[in-house]
Design goal:
With 326 residues, this protein is an alpha/beta fold. 26% of the residues lie in helices and 26% in strands. Helix 1 runs parallel beside helix 2 and helix 1 runs parallel beside helix 6.
Length: 326
Amino acid sequence: MIGTLRVGFAGTPAFAARSLEAIASAGFTIPLVLSQPDRPKGRGLAVSVSPVKALAESLGSPVLQPATLRTDADRAAALAIPLDVLVVAAYGLILPPAVLAWPRHGCLNIHASRLPRWRGAAPIVRAIEAGDALTAITIMQMDAGLDTGPVVDVVDVPIRERDTAGTLHDRLAEAGAKAIVATLARLARDGALASTPQPGEGATYASKIERRDAAIDWNRGAVAIDRQVRAFDPVPGAHASFAGEAVKLWRAHPVELSQAGAPGEVLSVGPDGIAVACGDTEGGGALRVIEVQPAGGRRMAAAAFAAGRAITPGARFAAGTADRRS
């Protein structure tokens, strides 16, 4: 039965590609893959294909890359291909009613949170930033709302103490791949999927990541800044500045120190990093910075960064700025 279920797929980044790979490996028929158009990327602005497109081409699956699905003309080529179900994962385009109604069994979304918490574009980042202890993969039957459809399956994924957005992303991608294959197998076997409406309370919105979100404000507590560093690793990187130079912080953790200082003040420098005073006593009131990346440079140990710039106690880090690039 698995091979007879016609599964379309819509996705763009690596998170989605892992599920496409699992669906193909499970033996489902994939008559169509949708992905965002190729775009210039990086400093050289070389045109880059999405991970989903690259994988689909390697699998021999037809790929369409409409810039939008808003009009009949935009979606005509896709809707001409009959589907039993469309799996959607981090696609990046809004699906209008005509697309939602296209597959015989509708559209299934792989969402990286425990809905209704963290609906929206950046659930992984916002969960770490907020200090959540638990997230999930939710398989949802899509409707016209933003991640509001009924839930087909939920797989809980604990957030570990030192998780970054990158490490959590990878575990959620694996969980999502397994969950969608199991869901599709049920659909192939039973011909339908049971679902449950989302709770009416507890909804939060995971807004799109802006560079300003990753700018460090040393007036915040050490625990909050630590979460910020981990939430924006690997993209775009939490950033501050030192002596007018933009600096990304890649590894840090709160520490308890007997000395105090003004927010951003260097309290100590040693082989284990740079201790920087924060704005309150949460988590000890200081953040030990372990790994940094100066503007235009590579990641390095904070101790090496301090040695190269002769940083001593009393020096000051400043807040990050939204328009700096490093």
